[in-house]
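Page 47, continued from p. 46.
Same chain as before, 231 aa.
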Amino acid sequence: MEVFLISGSNANSIRTNTSLLMAFGLKLLGLETVHIQLTGRDERPVLTGEMPAPFATAWFPATERPPSSAAIWDWIRQSATAEAVVVDLPVSAFDHGWIADPAFRILLPMATGAAEAERTARDFHAIAASLVSPDLVLPWILPVGWPPAMEPSDFEPVLNRAMSRSGLLAPSSDRVIQPGGISTFEIRSAPPVVDGRISLSPRLATATEGIAYAMLKATGSSLLPVPNDAF
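Result:
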């Protein structure tokens, strides 16, 4: 079982939509998938309909203190068949206990635009600065809405410009996941949820499969399909 945290200080819709697309893509790859949404303050879960998704779902309401990684693990272990767990984690619910768990892979969605790139790079540095052990894994940046032909190295000048005012080094290109096929989806204006249920066009569903595969490959996941099973 592997756990993927989708977090960052970008707009809630970007983070939540990215987590839903990732969960959908992992399910299309044949993995038993669970999506967990930790709601921020004054935020309701997005999946509220009957049979809301082709994967298992759960949500935790905002409280004065964010749930610990142990609390999330307790719920995950009740889903005995889960292979991949995607957690939609707002910054208000982020806890250093999450960072300290080496089983969690942290993904930071980066939408298009200089401000979004700077915000994501700053999130990267904030998390990296909290790592207290060399055994812990740095987060990955997941571009969404960028041209699929872009290589990870193409984001170096983007991130360098974004960090030029802060004096901090830009995240290296090996922490950037190649965008895959999500460029056709305007993640801010076209939420993948209708009436509390996830609803994707065939074209977008195919795109989610591509980005999920790219994410598994970039993070060295043991869940990566063998070549004969890959699309």
